[in-house]
Amino acid sequence: MKQLLATVTAAEPLAAFHLLTISALDLPQLRAGQLMLARPRTAHLRESYLRVPLFPIPSITAPNTCSVLIVRGEEGWTAAETVARSQAGDELDIVAPVGNGFTLEGGARRVLLLGTPSWLAPLIALAREAAQKQVEVTLLVERGPYELAPVLGALLPVEVEYEIVANLADSLKPVLMWPDQICAAAPAETYRALWEQITPLGARARSAFAQAMLAPPMACGFGVCLSCAVEIAGHPRLACVDGPVFDWADLAL
Ligand code: FES
Description:
By secondary structure, this protein is α/β, with parallel strands linked by helices. The chain has two domains: 2-98, Translation factors (Elongation Factor Tu (Ef-tu), domain 3); 110-250, Rossmann fold (3-Layer(aba) Sandwich), CATH 3.40.50. It has seven helices and 15 strands. The protein binds FE2/S2 (inorganic) cluster. FE2/S2 (inorganic) cluster binds at residues 218-221, 223-228, 238, 240.
């Protein structure tokens, strides 16, 4: 993990999101599911003492460049608002990489991605990673309060199939036997709704068959503040150090 200054090279609205493109010569290569913590370099401490956790989507074509998506009008806390207001040319003070991302299993040829609208970025990043490895990808996203099709159409590789569904649990059954790996990024209540369908498959396949992201609020990003404590396999763990991606079978739901 290192601290660096990055430049916002583009800032544009994309449907219900702010889409920021960020570049830095020393930007580390982040895996899908790893985070960066960011705040505007010039923000007054009163506005953004803490950096905000963001899931970067690495660029396919430009090195040392990534995008971040922030829902417009729902940033929630001041640091996110100040990052979302960034314009081209502004600088961000970044700490990265934070945590451990998704791992595409070596033998996986068909990966099913499951998520909800607030968690699109790590799934888009993973879809790009998988597509680059010639892995077939299907993404199911539960419909949310804002339009998702323009975002998915703009940011997913063309070979990735996606569907925006009314309810993930209801839509899972017809495709459940298709993947040889499942990766999910959603709130815990969504995992609870999917538990009975996914868990028996993992038990039959292998322990890493399904991975799930748990990303509670994070303040420090390196295991000091304890704000991101979660229960994993019956033990307390820190999402910023031990996660935020965990084996599905270890979730305590
Ligand atoms: S964010 Fe501080 S311990 Fe994880």
